[in-house]
Each structure stands twice: as structure tokens, then as C-alpha cells.
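Table 4 source record.
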Amino acid sequence: MSINVFNLPDLGEGLTEADILRWLVAEGDTVTMDQPIVEVETAKSAVEVPTPFEGVVHTLHGAEGDTMLVDQPLISISDGVESPEAPAGTGAEAGAPGAEHAASYREEELAGTTPSAELAVDEADPAAGEDEESSGNVLIGYGTSAASSSRRRRRKRGAGAETAGAAPTGSAAHTHDALTESPRLAPTVISPLVRKLAREHGVDITAVQGSGPGGLIMRKDVLAALEQVADQRMRADAAGPAPTGLAVPGPAAPGPAATGAPVPPPPPGAHAHGGPAHGGPGVGGPAASSSGAGETDSRTGLAIATREPVKGVRKHIADAMTRSRTEIPEATVWVDVDATELLNLRAELKAKDPQSTPSLLALIARFTLAGLRKFPQLNARIDTAEDGTRSITLFDGVNLGIAVESERGLMVPNLRNADRLSAVELTGAMREVIEVARSGKASPAQLSGSTFTLNNYGVFGTDGATPIINHPEAAILGIGRIIDKPWVVNGELAVRKVTTVTIAFDHRVCDGGAAGGFIRFVADCIENPVGALTQI
């Protein structure tokens, strides 16, 4: 009997893990090729994963609620044929390369570092190679073929063993040189934000001791390294001339993670970056993996009703919001707008052709797209190169994101090349992506790649807000509810339909003049939609 191990496939768009929502099969069930076997939830959407094998389910490698890494064994399927020549323990051996492959994927794809001096295909183990060829790391419609997945480079056994245990000595500069010149293992880093934080502050990530599981480098570790540098500078300033460069202490002495000692709390500013949204424990409470029911919170003295782990879509939202507020120096501009004429125009259009009447949101989106053509710096993003230099990338076209509240959390599906669509076409396209997002079936492509976001929080009965920019975009436009308000028209007081339009923008990309000009243009279009026809 041979056993095929199916690893969690690459679901695309840089997703590296998924939570098992529910198994669609059980051990002992007979499955056919391309049959859905499990429903998983990624940071983007819920997906049913089909099997590339047929046979009898031998092993389910995870339970419902577990988080699985890409390339980690998901399910083992036997062909149901007894083979006397098959050696004992075949199933366990088949799963071993999958686990090693998952570790390799986590290091290469998540760390973003591929030290070529120590990565190569392990030709001495053809059995492992065969397992990669047949492991079926493919999801129909996603990812890569089994042949391409077998090309993933694997770390040679024992590579770097001689240098891994060496303790560097001397100054931080010598430590950096030694690490640069000698072969080394890739730093254990998951979050691209951690790498970017280290790069922007001149921290050598290879010299940072990770306090996470398996030496994982967390954001608080980088912040702790920066705190050490600040302390060194203060002592140096007190003793003599200040140092000329940013030096990060090397790992000459084992840190808390290496010795097993308790990890010290991060510096005061670190809680804004390394709190529960990133998997760390909250202040004054135990780790988030515990249910917490029946416990007493040490900070407030209140009984804990429950404690839910931050995972799946909620983790993605928490990380995205934290990253936006951490990286983007945003400013906000708003204006009250008389939408009476826009409502009157739509009522006239609806009376003439009810089936082809654009929605109010589509009309405002059309005005927004015209405004982005006049102020293209708001349809942009900041890019940071490996050497730390920055550039402003402007786009030829607009992928318009639409903020959608769903049962799974906040989603931002986008309309590709929305600037090419009419108001009627925008109405249909918006309706479609909103329905897909709320159903939880939006694809990764539909939930990524937007260049500007429109947020209609008026549906919640709110007048205004300070929306958080959808990183890495440069701006987001928010629309409040439309209500009756007293308004001066031609020198006389009247009751008008008024809304508040708000834009939050990245102040690195442009200044208030561009943001103010953009929102004034949109407001003028809303107040005089007929006159705006010449510009949209």
C-alpha cells in the first residue's frame, strides 16, 4: 500500500498559512481526484481545497481550528492496495519530506532571504525528491504545478553547522563583517514589516536575537535592539563624543530566548507595535491562546469572560491596521457637502429608466475617479528599495477598493481598471464584488491590488470618521450618511440633503493642497452633478 501526502498548497498572493474551518472527509473515507476535502480560511477568504489524489483517507494532519503552514502535510491518502514489498513506516517517511519542505518554504518565502551558499537540491536523497514530485502541492486554479513545486530549493543537511554555534566577538561593526563574509542561516523572520522596520533603522537583522518560538524574530526584538542602541548613545554622550553610526549589538552573548530565561518586557513604545494583534500576550494578561474563562485580569481586577486568539481574517485586519498607522503619516481633510441636486438627478434617471439607474455610491465613485485623474498623486504608493531609498509610484489607471463589512470582518474587494467604467457599469461591478466579499468566497486577486479605497460608512448611520488608509495606498475617501440639515442657498436658509466627505492621505506622497483640491473637486461634483458632466 502506497501513501500519497498532500501538502497545504500555495493559495497565492503571498499567503503563508491557513486555518482549518472544517473537514469535508474523515479517515477511512474514499475520495476521488479533485474532490473537495477541507475548507480553510486564509487572511483573504474561505476556500475549499480539492485533492489531487484518489484513494482512501489515511491521515488527517490537522484538526478543525488548527493553523497550517503552506507546504505542511495536510492529508495522507492511500491507494488501498496492500503491497507486501512496502517497508514498514512508509506513511511516516512520506510525511517527513513534507515537514522539511514546509520549514524550507517558511524560511524562504517568509524570511525573504535565500542564502545561496547553503541552499541546494539534495541529490543524495532521491526518495525525498520523488515525494516532492508526487506530493500534489497544487490547488486547482491556484499556485503552481507539482513539477514546479519540486524545484523549490532545500537546505543541505548539516550546512552551516560549523558556523551556527560560533559566538562572534568584538565590536558591532566586526560582528556585521563576520556575518557578511561567512556562510550563515537565513534569519528567522516571518513579518515583512519586521524586516522593513529593521532595514529603515539600520538594524542588521542577523544580529538580533529572536524571542519567539524557535528563535523567531519579532517586532519587539527589533525595538529592543533599537532601545539598546539608544542606551549606548546616552552613555556615550555622557562619556564623550557621540558615535557616528547606528551600531546594533551582535549576538555574542546568548539572549533570553537562547538561555530559556523569561523574555523581558519590550520598551514602552513597543506595545504599540507588538501587542496582541501580532500574537503576543496582552498587557497584564496571559497568552492569547488561552480561553481565559474564569480567570481574573491582573490589571483591572475583573473576571475574564473569554479570550479569543487573534487569527485568520481578524489577524490580517489587525496587522494591516497597525501597519498603516505605524508606517503612514496620515492627515485628514473633510468637507460638508449639499447632495440635494445629486439625489434629484438620480430620481430623474430612475423615473426614465429604472433598470439602468446608477447607485449613489457609483455616482460618487465616478466623481472620485475623475478627481484622481486631476490629482494622480493620490492614486499612488510609497516604495522602499532594499538599500532604504524611497520612491513614489504613480499608476496609469485606478483599481478602486470598496470597503465592505462582512460576517468575517472588514474586506476591501477592488474593481480593476475602474476608471474605464461608466456609472452604470460601476453599479453592477460594485454589487458583484460586494456580494462575493460578504459571502466569504472572494479570491485573493479580488481582495488585493487596489490603489485607492472608497469607504461608505454612512450605512452605519454615522456622519463622519477618520478612516485608516488601506496600506500601501496613499489615500482613502470616506462618505457619511445623507441627512436633512439647515443650509444657506442663495442667501436664504433652506433644508437640504447634506453629507460629509472625508479624505485621509499619506503626507509623504503629497501635501494638503492636493488633498484639499481633490476633495473640493469631488464635493463640487456632488453639489452640481450636471455641471460635472463636462469633466467626468
